[in-house]
Amino acid sequence: MDYWTLFSCDPSFFEVKMQCKRCGRCCTETEMELLPVDIERIVKLGIDIRKFVRIDDEYVRLRCAGKYCVFYDPEKKMCKIYEHRPIGCRLYPLQYSEGEIYVDPDCPAHDTIPRSEIERLAPYVKAFVEFSRMTRLWLRIRYGI
Question: Looking at the whole model, is its pTM more than 0.85?
Fold first, then answer.
């Protein structure tokens, strides 16, 4: 599968249609994996890769500043790069584990996601997990990190 092409389309396609409560739960102590397309999109904003990337063994994740994601503004309860945020952030609260797609029960809006939305995005959640495993190698090749 050509993950790069798959995830290079308009990122808004991957946004879960739900009634977000803007609580910031998803941005608190995040472990969100990044895709190469996410890193490229954020770097194009002029943000140094070392400011937002954290390498965690084999995974590349969003960096936290204290309790929150580096891009989260706790006062405004909003992402500072909302229009350019990573695919994983857009797919949340959908998660993948042991071959199953599920909605994170810790998300206060978990019960506002229609079943049709889960079904629409399920293949992309699985592909996201698979592609995120390649980000570490891509980062070494592209940036020498």
Answer: yes
Please report which confidence band the pLDDT of residue 9 belongs to, taking 50, 70 and 90 as the band edges.
confident
d(CA 40, CA 45): 9
Instruction: Record the tokens describing residue 128, joined without a space.
Output: 């996201």
Is 112 buried (19+), middle (13-18) or exposed (0-12) by CB count in 10 A?
Answer: middle
E strand spans, the chain: 53-56, 59-62, 64-65, 68-69, 72-73, 78-79, 94-97, 100-103
Mapping DSSP to helix (H, G, I), strand (E, B) and coil, where does residue 95 land?
A: strand
CB-based burial label for 12 (10 Å; 0-12, 13-18, 19+): exposed
pLDDT at 3: 87
Pairwise CA distance, residues 59 & 137, whole Å: 9
For residue 93, cis peptide bond before it (omega within 30 degrees of 0): yes
